[in-house]
């Protein structure tokens, strides 16, 4: 399971994200970017972050380390910003934290070159989880210590907002023509050959086991957290085998 820590100090909001994540210190002396159950799509965004972050890590992609962060709403009483104070008050309990990559810079395609191999792996992964938020307008990529890191996976696996449509999502194509890494000629065929065989039932069971049970309660149509974990794994397992055949790169990338 993900390491659990407790927030001890709220430092500042990070207003680049629409869900208003914040920078916090925790009782393990770590500094984390914290995402809140009281923001946006709530706990489903955090579930997506866990599934995609932990899956990406197991596939050899670089993502900041994840923890769960316990939050006492009293921590927001001294916050002068009313919007932030309300967010903290509504997010008591278990939230999500990501290692803060100090001095990381946002990815700039004009300043940082990416190999076709690495670009292919990231595009293939984003197609697998149907990430609609990695465009050149908003790459959600950081460069830290000279290497590319993936962040912000809340806008993935859109089928978990309508579980009845999840089976149909398996065959849904992925439009990568606007992807931040499309200009680098992503080698998607090579990525699929390397990564698809790794996405097994066992791996996905391991990944979904990382989702805190508290975020899986009271989901309509599911009688247990384990049943919901299986529902998260099933479309990913099915998509992994053939999604490379349905990645639309336009004229820039390469299948």
TrEMBL record:
Residues in HipA-like kinase domain copies: 13-162
Pfam name, any one: HipA_2
InterPro entries associated with the record: HipA_2 (IPR046748)
Top-level taxonomic group: Bacteria
Protein name stated in the entry: HipA-like kinase domain-containing protein
């Amino acid at each position: 399971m993900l390491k659990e820590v407790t927030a001890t100090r709220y430092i500042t909001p990070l207003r680049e994200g629409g869900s208003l994540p914040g920078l916090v210190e925790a009782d393990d002396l770590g500094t984390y970017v914290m995402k809140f159950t009281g923001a946006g799509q709530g706990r489903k965004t955090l579930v997506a972050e866990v599934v995609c972050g932990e899956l990406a890590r197991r596939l050899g992609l670089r993502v900041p380390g994840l923890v769960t962060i316990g939050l006492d709403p009293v921590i927001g009483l001294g916050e002068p910003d009313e919007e932030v104070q309300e967010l903290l008050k509504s997010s008591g309990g278990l939230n999500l934290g990501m290692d803060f990559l100090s001095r990381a810079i946002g990815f700039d395609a004009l300043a940082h070159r990416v190999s076709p191999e690495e670009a292919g792996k990231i595009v293939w992964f984003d197609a697998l989880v149907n990430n609609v938020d990695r465009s050149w307008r908003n790459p959600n990529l950081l460069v830290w210590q000279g290497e590319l890191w993936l962040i912000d996976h809340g806008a993935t696996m859109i089928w978990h907002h309508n579980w009845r449509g999840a089976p149909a999502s398996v065959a849904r194509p992925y439009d990568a023509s606007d992807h931040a890494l499309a200009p680098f000629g992503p080698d998607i065929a090579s990525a699929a050959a390397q990564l698809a065989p790794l996405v097994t039932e066992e791996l996905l069971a391991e990944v979904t086991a990382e989702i805190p049970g508290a975020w899986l309660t009271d989901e309509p149509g599911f009688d247990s957290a384990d049943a919901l974990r299986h529902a998260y794994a099933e479309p990913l397992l099915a998509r992994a085998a053939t999604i490379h055949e349905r990645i639309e790169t336009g004229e820039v990338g390469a299948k």
